[in-house]
Amino acid sequence: MAFNRGDKVEVSSKEEGFLGSYYPAIILSAIGKNEFLVQYMTLLTEDGSRPLREIVDAGDIRPEPPEIPVTRFAILDPVDAYDNDGWWVGTVSGKNGSKYDVYFETSGEETVYPVAQLRVHQDWINGEWICSQPIHC
Questions:
Q1: Which residues are bridge partners to 7 per DSSP?
Q2: What pTM was computed for the model?
Q3: 20 and 105 in contact (C-beta within 8 Å)?
Q4: Cα-based distances in Å from 112 to 23, 52, 55, 67
Q5: How far is Cα 58 from Cα 80, in angstroms, rounded to an integer?
Q6: Which pLDDT tens digits describe the chain residue by residue (137 residues)?
Q7: Count of helix runs (H) and strand runs (E) in the chain
Q8: What count of Cα atoms within 13 Å lies in the side-chain half-sphere of residue 13?
Q9: Whether the Cβ atoms of residue 100 and residue 111 lie closer than 8 Å to each other
Q10: How many Cβ atoms from other residues are within 10 Å of residue 24's Cβ?
């Protein structure tokens, strides 16, 4: 997919401990055919003085997914949970009042989130968004 300067995107991390996470960023420029310079919207440089910039492979970038309004989830719904400055892929494993337990397969951890920190999980496949939960889409 071709990205242009200023496009809002999400960048996946392949680092150990960060698998299954996506971080909001903006395309600053193309670097050749398969790489882009991005500026993260939520990650800062080590000294915390400015937004982190990084050259990333095109295969690790996807467009910002469309927002799907939702007010509740069911057990076993695939979701993205906003935590530690990015979106993490998980599965709803329980409900406690107005909060949801989310299980993360990549780490084996389970964490509680309010619905405001969750979104319907969508996959970017062959240039289009595929919703994991047709009932919400």
A1: none
A2: 0.89
A3: yes
A4: 20, 28, 33, 22
A5: 21
A6: 689 999 999 999 888 878 779 999 999 999 988 999 999 999 999 999 999 999 999 999 999 999 999 989 999 999 999 999 999 999 999 999 999 999 999 899 999 999 999 999 999 999 999 998 777 66
A7: 0, 12
A8: 21
A9: no
A10: 18
